[in-house]
Amino acid sequence: MTQLKLARDERIALRAQAHHLDPVVLLGSNGLTDAVIKEVDRELNVHGLIKVRVPSDDREERVAIYEELAEKLGAAKIQLIGKLFVLYRPIPEKEEEDEEKPAPMDRVRKTGAKARNNRKRLTEKINSKKSGAKNAPWAKTLKKGKTPKGQVKAVGAKGKALGSHMKNKGVLKEEE
Q1: How many Å apart are CA 122 and CA 114, to the nearest integer?
Q2: What digits encode the pLDDT tens for the residues 13-25?
Q3: Its pTM surpasses 0.85
């Protein structure tokens, strides 16, 4: 592959964007290996603009690594300062194979229903006399509105727990 050439203004804008970035690839004592090249390629595909840190004290070696990475990966050289250098390559567009995935709002609703159903099952399991679940360490957390660790309490639009508005109107009886 050949290096990507950018106009001066584009390089300056990318340099400004890269200012706050941390290095995502650190070269080890073995230098530029195939594994390092694959990692840099993967990070360029994900982020597009990355910083790489080279621990070598030899300036010529760092410049050679910088040139080789840009050439092999088809990336643009943005900046080389000391032991850090910045590379850029546009992120490739993903193909539209993910059409069957549900919309984000659908996932949120399903998650809430799952949590409620899990809490119901756990409560029923604790209350049944056949299982010895009353002595389980997580059984104590299910009393009076508490939920087991890792589950989310079902909350309505106004921040109240689901079902509480029905208790206020006298439809549901409070458990004591």
Answers
A1: 12
A2: 999 999 999 999 9
A3: no
